[in-house]
Records
---
Amino acid sequence: DAPGMVVWNAALLKTFRREREGAFQFRYEVFNVLNRANFRVPQNSINAVTAGTINGADAGRLMQVALKYEW
């Protein structure tokens, strides 16, 4: 991980139980809640033209919704 990397994740879950038949779970998850730019590690090859430069960043905020069945 690069220096200064900060990632906050969050999830909301609700379980609906049914008699004798198991349960359904609704899930809403958010990764990188703050949508903060997390840059990658700089190039560390001294012989490269791009030495010391940062050539990318990790993904921004990601959200997913799921329905899970437990029996």
---
Amino acid sequence: SVAIVTAAYMFVPQVDVMLHCAANISLQPPLRTALRDNYTGTKSMLDLARACGPRLRAMVHVSTVAANGH
């Protein structure tokens, strides 16, 4: 959730590895829900990763076939 990502910014100075493995895996979600869960959530995590700066050694993203859309 956006609230969780926002709260996570307090840990930015301590983060060196991030793991992102959240998505909506429903095969036919409404477009707005799919974008919110799969695109916007991932973008928020990438923004958080950028905020970590050079201390961040790895950002691992795990997706799903349903999140891929193919």
